[in-house]
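Dataset card, provenance and construction

Sequences and ligand SMILES were collected as paired inputs. For each pair, a complete structure of the chain with the small molecule in place was predicted and serialized as structure tokens. The example below shows a pair involving zinc ion. Curators did not alter the output after generation; any descriptive sentences attached to a record were derived from the structure itself.
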Amino acid sequence: MASLLTKTAAQVARRTLLPLSSRLYSSESPVYSRVDPVKGKVADDKVDMPDTLGHAVGTERFELLAKAAGNEDPFELNIKKRAKGTRGEPTIIPSMYHYRLVGCICEEDAVSINWMYLYKGEPRRCNCGYWFKLVDLEVPDYGQ
Ligand SMILES: [Zn+2]
């Protein structure tokens, strides 16, 4: 009896969710053509349990969807090479917040990192002379 109720509930859920998923796939966004945003979240006859993406929520789901779309660094945490570093052409640091902690390896063979806080709208110069500027991180919608 319980399995019959579960099957019926799954069939009803599938019928109600199907139009939503077909709408997402038909979107013109290029991200939707690469990523299945409802993968693991829709009941399926072929799958007994959701996979990792199906269990993930919040920032973990955002990160998994971003990686599926080809963005290996969705939070901009990888090391960046300094740009020209002048006041007119500073090294651009993207951030989701109004400030960010940034470390500058001032010389190639330096054994320490010079840490400093960068604030939006306030380009800052490291002690070595390189300029850094904080800008808004553009967060694409992966359908999370
Ligand atoms: Zn420096």
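Derived descriptions for this record:
The radius of gyration is 22 Å.
The longest strand covers residues 99-104.
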